[in-house]
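REQUEST
  id: r-88c1
  op: predict_structure
  target: MFS transporter
  payload:
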Amino acid sequence: MRKKYVEKIWTGQFYVALINNFLLFIVYYALLTILPVYILGELNGTKGQVGLAMTIFMLSAIIVRPFAGKIIEIFGKQKTLLISEFVFCLSAVLYIFVDSLSFLLILRLFHGIWFSIVTTVLVAIANDIIPESRKGEGLGYFAMSMNLAVVFGPLIAFTALQWFSYQLLFTGLAVIVVIGYLFAFSLKVSEYKPKSSTVRNNRPSWHDFFETKSFPIAVVGFLTAFAYASIMSFISVYVETRGLLQYASLFFIVFAAAMIMVRPMTGRLYDTKGPHAVIYPSFLFFAAGLFLLSSIHSVTTLIISGVLIGVGYGSIVPCFQALAIQSAPKHRSGHATSTFFTLFDSGMALGAFVLGGVSAQSGYSALYILCGVIIIFTIPAYWRLTSANKVKSSILQIKDVKEG
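RESPONSE
  id: r-88c1
  status: 200
  body:
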């Protein structure tokens, strides 16, 4: 067991993939944060149009996501990465020239397509770079780059707007994502081909777009994302009703800090004891954070809930990603990734929509209690789905290696 941990995670290639992913998500979250203000203030839009601009991006990403695995299979990871990230960069540049709401809506639709493809292929590439014996730990660090961008993206956007115009902000974001794209050229990508016996005919089928072996953990990811949508969509509005709006950014800072602190421990625990040793306690931390959030009255309780959610949610999602990929053969890693994110993104989108109605009818406290209950009920769902499909440990990936 000790010998396995001699294998390095922090190689030059892993740093390149990590930085690329981090810069890409900084731009994503910066735009997600600043566009509502931009639409209302600069384009004279309505709140409904703000929602449309946010929804159309996610909708296009969800629709394209099932096709991402097939695209990767046809063109290979290297070509898919370079082409999709190039068009993603082009989309980021076009925000500089937005002068109408209709142009912005078309751009958001276009941008979401390429966001879906590039994020899918980046996870598949990172999976190939990470050693088999440290898959849980490595994918956890990779996922952490995305979660850190939740903090740095909005921070950069709001700080820049205090000094610069929107056009200069969009220019800066375009530069950031182009820098990440340049890193992509130095990635040495492994391409895996299926055995001849596994090659299918040319008639499109369900298998071409989804990895059925990844569905159980993707369903659990859907439920988790549904509950987490309450954080991404409503936390700012909720803390404002509690008179704590100035501390909203602090919530995400402690969220990220907690996640970083536990990541080395949870990743190693995943690889040595299996996913259950991480996922079950993390569900409880996540639920406890949501229940506490439902009754915050001070900065202290807000910070504690941020820590609990950071430890819980921040540990669960990397494990889910690892399980989704490990459930499939190596040449199907792109399909497994796209299957997981299709359901995960759908959970986020549906959660934002449904929970918005819940908050309007019952208030935000009831909303977070409901989400805590959802996470509690997700625990037996996880046990039932993963047990029924024998998704029990990271040994699955070793079996795939032997088969491939």
